[in-house]
Amino acid sequence: MKNIMNNNVILEINQLPSKLLEENPVFKFATRPPGVNFYVGIWKRGDQNKVRLQNGAQSFLIENSISVTAVDEPTSPSEGIVQFIIYSGVASSDLISHDEARRRFTSILKTIRKAGWKKFINEGDPRLIGRDMYKFVLNESPAASMDTDYEPTFEEWMRIPSRTRWSFYANHVYLSVDFSREPTLLDPEKDGAYLVTFTVDSENEHYRSYVEPDKREDWKSALPAQLAILPPMRAKAEAELRAKGVKIDETYQDPPKPNLVR
């Protein structure tokens, strides 16, 4: 039975584009400069409102979805789809109170963690937890990931900028989740509108992003030098934070590095 019949779109990193199109007829193919292949599925909310991210035992369902964009890697077609960007509402309705949005977004993060995904901290960022990571992201490094297990208070929630990330990994797949607020609906006493974005990367695609665009085709050769920069950055940041009395999460372990055999 086609997925469109049961209102589920099933996505799996590294699946062949032909399989994506065959199993999900809602997707259309488009090529955009500079020669990147895109596969786009768009639907009305409620018509095709569930996306299942297939990743072994760590699979989970995304509800209230709106659209998906998939990308392959032209220089390495055998990798299949290397990235999905999934857009969804935080609820079935467009307008929602900001505190209810906070609770629902936190519930999404808990669903991902319960499915077995581990939190991911960039190798150059300090290993912080809870409010310490919240303060680090807001005050020091907006590109860092929030602690996926920390539930911000309502006041903290309203201070989090749009596109702040919460990052995970499982089975050599990387996932980041963020939200965007409608900028004209920021009154905390009134309803707001939120868009949630799930960005799913294959392991290769995740690490390709570490190198300069002009080195992308030979990223495996360029990656070791880029990775070598990160541990000293983390060590420096952690030393400064320890000196201020901030606790470092010594139990956190980085995910395994990719196989760089050419």
Task: Report what the structure shows.
This protein is α+β, with helices and mostly antiparallel strands and 262 residues long. The protein is 27% helix and 29% strand. It has six helices and 13 strands. It has helices at 17-23, 98-114, 130-139, 154-159, 203-208, 219-243, and strands at 8-11, 27-32, 36-42, 50-53, 60-63, 65-72, 81-89, 95-97, 118-119, 145-146, 165-170, 173-181, 191-202. Strands 2, 3, 6, 7, 8, 9, 10, 11, 12 and 13 form a ten-stranded mixed beta sheet that branches. Strand 10, helix 4 and strand 11 form a beta-alpha-beta unit. The protein is globular and about 55 Å long. The termini are far apart.
Shape: globular
Q: Count of helices? A: 6
Low-pLDDT runs:
1-5
Number of strands: 13
Order of helices and strands: EHEEEEEEEHEHEHEEEHH
Major sheet, described briefly? Answer: 10 strands, mixed
Strand content: 25-35%
Structural class: alpha+beta
Based on CA atoms alone, the radius of gyration comes out at 19 Å
- Gap between N and C termini, in Å? 40 Å
Measured as a percent range, the helix fraction is 25-40%
Mean pLDDT: 92
